[in-house]
Every structure is written in C-alpha cells, then in structure tokens.
Amino acid sequence: MYTLTLVNRRVLLLNQNYEPLTVCSARRAIVLLFSGKAEMIEKADGFRIRTVSASYALPSVVRLWHYRKVPYKQIMLTRHNIIMRDDNRCQYCGSQRGPMTVDHVIPKTMGGQDVWNNLVCACTRCNNKKGDQTPEQAGMKLLRKPSRPSYITFINRHYGINEQWKPYLFIDPSSGHYATT
After folding, report:
1. Where are the alpha helices (H) located in the chain, listed in sequence order?
2. What is the average pLDDT across 70-75?
3. How many other C-beta atoms can be found within 10 angstroms of the C-beta atom of residue 37?
4. CATH number of the domain at 79-138, out of 1.10.30.50, 3.40.630.10, 3.90.550.10, 3.40.50.720?
5. What's the pTM value of the predicted model, to 2 decimals?
C-alpha cells in the first residue's frame, strides 16, 4: 500500500530545454527514466522505491532527453479556473468567506464578454451590490486587474508547488513569487 502512494506522487516533467511541460505521476516518470527517455533532475527528499534486488531514488523533477514540440497550452475559461486564478478571493472586498460567484467586470448588457480579462471572482454580497453596473458606477474598485493565467501559474494553483520545482517554474525560492527578468 505504501508503494502505491509513492508512485502516485506528483513529478514535474520538463522538456529537453528545461521548459515545464506538465505534472505526471512518479510511476510515469519512473517509466520514462527506465526506458531511457528522461533523466532525473531532482530527487524527492527521503523517498525511495525498493525492488527485490535494488533501491532507487524517487524522482521529483525529470527532464526529457529529446525536445518535444508541444502546442501552446491554453487554460480553459471555466468558473472553477477563474475562482482558482483569483485564489478563491473576492476581487472587490478581498473576502474568502462564503460561496464565490463569477462577475462580469463590464456587464454583458453593456457589451462585456466572457473572456479572462472581464471575469473575476466575487462574493455574493459584492456581486449583488455591483449588480448590472461597472465597478466605477457601483463605487467599487478591483483589487487586481484580471488577466489570462499562464500555464505555469495554473500548475502552481492546481498542484501546489513542491520546493524543488520552484527554479524550474521561474519562482523565486526566497519569496515564493514569480521571478522577473
């Protein structure tokens, strides 16, 4: 039973050029390693896989030996992903209490569209207060301008960040924020 949970642990999969591709199971990463398609970049601290005759370090980050051309990864525009992008925080009052809704910054009746930069997470109270108005008309301010999340941001929010992944996801280990160049 213990081995089953180990092989289901999450491993960051990098392309040959160290670009983050996805997060896979340790089982998939081990198959890539033993088939000679990838190399281990980081080991999961303190975890090992044991067979009858040998013991192997459990991977935390693996890199493909050959570059794989992958299409641009777009995050689907869904209610769940908007709330996740905004950390389940109302973008008007900052509350994380109670059920959250998705609000159109520019209401549909005024030409607002269902796009990343027009949708925000809002608590029921603020959404009702704003109603069918723009934030300016309702006397409200957005805490943060909405935008399309990057795939790296999505990996961070969806899977949580393992400390060993931070350098490969362009996250400053000391602050936990995305590194800027």
Report:
1. 2-7, 26-34, 79-85, 124-130, 135-138, 151-159
2. 77
3. 13
4. 1.10.30.50
5. 0.62
